[in-house]
Amino acid sequence: MYFANTLYGAYFLRYTGVQEDGMIRKTGFVVSLVVVGLGSLANAGVCRHDRSLSYHQALAAESRFQAAGSVNFGGQGFGSGTLIAPGWLLTAAHGTELTTGSAVRFTVGGQTYRGVESFEHPLWMGTSRITEGYDVALVRLEEAVTGVVPAQIYAGESIVGREAMLVGAGLTGDGLAGQQPGTYGTMHAGLNTIDMTADGLSVFFPSTALSSNGLVIDFDNPITPVINRTGSATPLAYEFFPGQGDSGGAYWVEDSDGVWKVASIQSWGTLNAVGANFGQYGNMAVSAKLYDDEVLSWIAATVPAPGTLVMAIPFGIFASRRRREFVQ
Prior knowledge:
- The protein is mainly beta.
- It has one domain: Thrombin, subunit H, CATH 2.40.10.120.
- The chain is built from three helices and 22 strands.
- It has helices at about 55-60, 95, 295-300; strands at about 1-5, 20, 25, 30-35, 45, 70-75, 80-85, 90, 105-110, 110-120, 135-140, 165-170, 170-175, 180, 190-195, 195, 215-220, 240, 250-255, 260-270, 285-290, 325.
- Strand 6 and strand 7 (about 80-85) form a beta hairpin.
- It starts with a strand and ends with a strand.
């Protein structure tokens, strides 16, 4: 197995073997860890080969997901993100790591907004250690976004075993062919089941540090269930999977109050073999969960509460927030 980030590119680990171990299955062919993240200009997500992408595009256009948008990381890569306050973008740290906060551009509600500064979560260890979790970043925007209702952060019980809705702007394709180049930029949405936390993938990657902060989905094949990796081998009726460029896009769940809220951020994923096309059946994707006390408290401390008076203090030192901004 090999892995990579959702940004286009990454690093690879190798594992081969055959084993049936409860809900986690290795097959005789190699699987690769890829980081599914940013990419070249491309539509969002990969659907079943027997379903239409138009269904997923219409789903993303529903008002409950209006806070989702696309992100340009200063020309260094493209990804996805979510508005969580009028002037704040939530996205992947392996995206903001590429550039300064002032170079970030966030498109939501038909308008593009400039970033001012970015903050990676203090427990983020960098892209070279992406499997260790906390791939979460915030970007303060130059101006408040108007006409878009910000998303709420899910803070409930574990969503392992539940269906979650990925909303992003990455490459599109289908499970047989995988993602297709040149399809970035159109919002799409679709469901998949959160099967487990990423530390449970040690059967695939015994020498890799894997964080319980990661949440795992796989892409089940409706024709050949034998290549199922985790959880049930039966795909959802409209099972969906991220493409490169969906990094930073959120997985949404319906909370007990009936409101759809963001619960995790797309981070990295796997390939079936070195050089294989990401997005094919049998691949897995891992997102960084938000309903973690370490993440919830950090977001609350970084994003001012509505109506809070914020004083600008020049020459301040904010090392704990790992501040990234462009200073002239």
